[in-house]
Amino acid sequence: MTIYEFAEQIIYEAGQNIKNKLALELTIETKSNPNDLVTNMDKETEQLLVERINQAYPDHHIIGEEGHGKEVDTLDGVVWIIDPIDGTLNFVHQQQNFAISIGIFKDGEKYAGLVYDVMNDNLYHAIAGEGAYLNDMKLGALADTTLKRSIISLNPNWLTKDWIKDVYTPIVKDARSARSYGSAALDFVFVAAGIVDSYMTLRLHPWDFAGGMIIAEETGAVVSNQMGETLHPLQSNSIIVANQQLHREIVSGYLSRYEKELTELHQGMFSSR
Ligand code: 2AM
Ligand code: CA
Ligand code: CA
Ligand code: CA
């Protein structure tokens, strides 16, 4: 079995385990603020994935949102970057619209991405260089779009914040329409599948984007931070993912005029992972 096949197997197992326990009462704690939640199922799912990987591949490294791999600071060897439940608020409130996300790197190179939309039983997956799939269906190369003809995904919370609203309001105004899904991993694969044309957010951690980035790039999507710079898989960053033309239009036509402010924001927010 390849590492990729093994990853598929354990992501399905972890998803099934979540489904089996949906009716059970959740233990919910808060993290950085009252709306930043973590449940026992986030922790249990990370634990399940980590145990399986450790057992099969004791020399692999694992970074997970719920505490694993804080010491991992290089991409040497094989590195798994895991978000056990992406969209925890959706999981708690809706029992749907959440995903398990896995990104795998081999000796510093992208190797594979898997994002499992658990309740719809949709697995988005890609081996770098071999194209992206939704279940058995190969996803086509993204067509270019203009903002005027694009649906973009953006959390409306950003439009309530001081000067940040000035950055995004013109983009939302000029787009055909905007949506918000509440799971960064799903937003990435929705771009890959052509469901939305762009996803933008100001703050993601490696586990939020590792899997989705590899899948989206396999469809020709461009992934960068909001200054148009390449992401480092081990560093938190802002994000814009879009088809090639739309990425260029939004970065150079809308975001670049706020480059100074965005750069200062990044320096304040991303001093650590
Ligand atoms: P999470 O559900 O795994 O925490 C919600 O808008 C999206 O942003 C989710 O993908 C969520 O991931 C992510 N996110 C990143 N940092 C967050 C934070 N501090 N609070 C809430 N959501 C966060
Ligand atoms: Ca979280
Ligand atoms: Ca997440
Ligand atoms: Ca999470």
UniProtKB/TrEMBL annotation:
<dbReference type="InterPro" id="IPR020550">
    <property type="entry name" value="Inositol_monophosphatase_CS"/>
</dbReference>
<keyword id="KW-0479">Metal-binding</keyword>
<protein>
    <recommendedName>
        <fullName>inositol-phosphate phosphatase</fullName>
        <ecNumber>3.1.3.25</ecNumber>
    </recommendedName>
</protein>
<dbReference type="Pfam" id="PF00459">
    <property type="entry name" value="Inositol_P"/>
</dbReference>
<dbReference type="InterPro" id="IPR020583">
    <property type="entry name" value="Inositol_monoP_metal-BS"/>
</dbReference>
<dbReference type="InterPro" id="IPR000760">
    <property type="entry name" value="Inositol_monophosphatase-like"/>
</dbReference>
<keyword id="KW-0460">Magnesium</keyword>
<keyword id="KW-0378">Hydrolase</keyword>
